[in-house]
Amino acid sequence: MAETSAARKAALWVGLVFILGAALGGMIGYVFAHQRYTVTSAGATSESARRAQKVQELTQLANLTPEQSQQVDAIIREIQGQIKGIRQTTDPQINAVREKGRDRIRAILSPEQKPKFEEFSKKLDEERKRNAQ
C-alpha cells in the first residue's frame, strides 16, 4: 500500500515538473521568437536595412523592374508600420501575461530558489532588450 502511494506521488511530481518545464520552455521560446522581430526606435536604421535587403533579394529572385522594386519597398514599409502599431498595443498585454506567469512560478518556489529565478528572469529581460535593438 505504501509503495503504491509513493509511486503515485512520484508520478505526480514527475508530471508536475514536466508541465512546468513545458510551460517555461514555451514562454522562453515565445519570448525569443517574438523579440527577434521587434524593432525599436534605436533599430530604425536596421529596419530600413533589412527592408532594403529583402527588396533586393526579391528583385533579383523575381527579376523585378525598378518600378516594381519601389512599389514592393513601399508595401513592406507600410506593413512594418502597421506591425509596429499592433505591437504597441499588444506588448503591454504580453508583458502583463509574462508577469502573471512569473508570479505563478514565484509562488511555487522555495525562498532559496527565488533569487535564482529572479536572476534567470533578469537574464531573459536583458536578452529581450538586446534582441530588440
Describe the structure.
The protein is mainly alpha-helical and 133 residues long. The chain is built from 4 helices and no strands. The longest helix is centred in the middle third of the chain and has 43 residues, at 66-108. It is elongated and about 80 Å long. The chain starts with a helix and ends with a helix.
Question: Topology of this protein?
Answer:
Blueprint: H1 2-36, H2 44-62, H3 66-108, H4 114-132
Helix pairs in contact: 1-4, 2-3
Give a quick rundown of the structure.
This protein has helices at about 1-35, 45-60, 65-110, 115-130. Residues about 35-45 have low confidence and may be disordered.
Strand residues, percent:
under 5%
Largest sheet: none
By DSSP, the count of extended strands is: 0
Number of helices, where a helix is a run of at least 4 consecutive DSSP H or I residues: 4
Low-confidence stretches: 36-44
Structural class by secondary-structure content: mainly alpha
* Helix-strand sequence: HHHH
Shape: elongated
What is the residue-averaged pLDDT?
Answer: 85
What's the end-to-end separation, in Å? 59 Å
* Computed CA radius of gyration, to the nearest angstrom: 22 Å
Helical content stands at over 70%
